[in-house]
């Protein structure tokens, strides 16, 4: 579990995150939603420890991040998996080499055990036999699945995903959403996702936090979204659906051309 209490993050005199408190639960898909510029990316990077915060506290399984020394923070890093917006695969490495990378960096496993773990992770994301392929040979959805396989290679307690459906068509997005949810439930991971995709929210949003202008404007789940009278939520839903429809029309037009 991750607990955030009154988190504040500034850049110079500008307060970007303004006293956010929230809980992120294990075995649940925890979503951070908000418009571009709302502060959700800064919030996630603060959770990851990539930014030093200016106020409040972040607790990992009850342990305050601010009190962790370098060695403990390094250990915490090995308990985290990360799926980046653009997949962030190494183009010069094969699928197998990409997935094995964190194992070689952070584990003491022997080579044979690392290969077994890679094969397990690739199997879990339905990419059996793709070991020797290079990223250039993969579709966008396959790249995301490789990124997920790499993120779970170290059997993390915490999984962070930054816009995992970015650049994907609606059908592939659903596949990625369902895969993340299955893995979260299966391994009891505390999964935290940054997204503006309302389909993701309605499909897998066990715990949803809406950030607006650096504040937590709302918190609930996918069922609550349908009944809330919160103006910020309703505005976000409308805008997200409109943008999605525009993208779908553009995709259809591109295919016809």
Automatic annotation (TrEMBL):
Residues 2-238 form the ABC transporter domain. It holds the Pfam family ABC_tran. Keywords: ATP-binding, Nucleotide-binding, Transport. The keyword RNA-binding does not apply. Gene3D superfamilies: P-loop containing nucleotide triphosphate hydrolases (3.40.50.300). GO terms for molecular function: ATP binding; ATP hydrolysis activity. It comes from the Bacteria. PANTHER family: INTERMEMBRANE PHOSPHOLIPID TRANSPORT SYSTEM ATP-BINDING PROTEIN MLAF (PTHR43023:SF6), PROTEIN TRIGALACTOSYLDIACYLGLYCEROL 3, CHLOROPLASTIC (PTHR43023). This is Phospholipid/cholesterol/gamma-HCH transport system ATP-binding protein. It comes from Schleiferia thermophila.
């Amino acid at each position: 579990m991750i607990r955030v209490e009154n988190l504040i993050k500034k850049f110079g005199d500008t307060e970007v995150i303004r006293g956010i408190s929230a809980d992120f639960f294990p075995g649940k898909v925890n979503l951070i939603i908000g418009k571009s510029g709302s502060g959700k990316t800064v919030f996630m990077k603060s959770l990851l420890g990539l930014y030093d915060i200016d106020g409040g506290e972040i607790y990992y399984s009850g342990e305050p991040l601010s009190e962790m020394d370098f060695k403990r923070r390094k250990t915490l890093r090995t308990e985290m998996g990360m799926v980046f917006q653009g997949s962030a695969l190494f183009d010069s490495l094969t699928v197998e080499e990409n997935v094995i990378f964190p194992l070689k960096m952070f584990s003491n496993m022997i080579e044979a055990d690392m290969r077994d773990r890679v094969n397990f992770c690739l199997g879990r994301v339905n990419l059996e036999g793709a070991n020797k392929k290079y990223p250039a040979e993969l579709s966008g959805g396959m790249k995301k699945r490789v990124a997920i396989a790499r993120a779970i290679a170290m059997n993390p307690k915490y999984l962070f995903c930054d816009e995992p459906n970015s650049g994907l068509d609606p059908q592939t997005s659903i596949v990625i959403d369902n895969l993340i949810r299955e893995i979260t439930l299966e391994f009891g991971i505390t999964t935290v996702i940054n997204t503006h995709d309302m389909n993701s929210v309605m499909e897998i949003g066990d715990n949803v936090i809406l950030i607006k202008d650096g504040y937590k404007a709302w918190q609930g789940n996918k069922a609550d979204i349908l009944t809330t009278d919160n103006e910020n939520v309703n505005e976000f839903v409308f805008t997200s659906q409109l943008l999605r429809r525009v993208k779908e029309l553009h995709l259809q037009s591109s295919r016809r051309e």
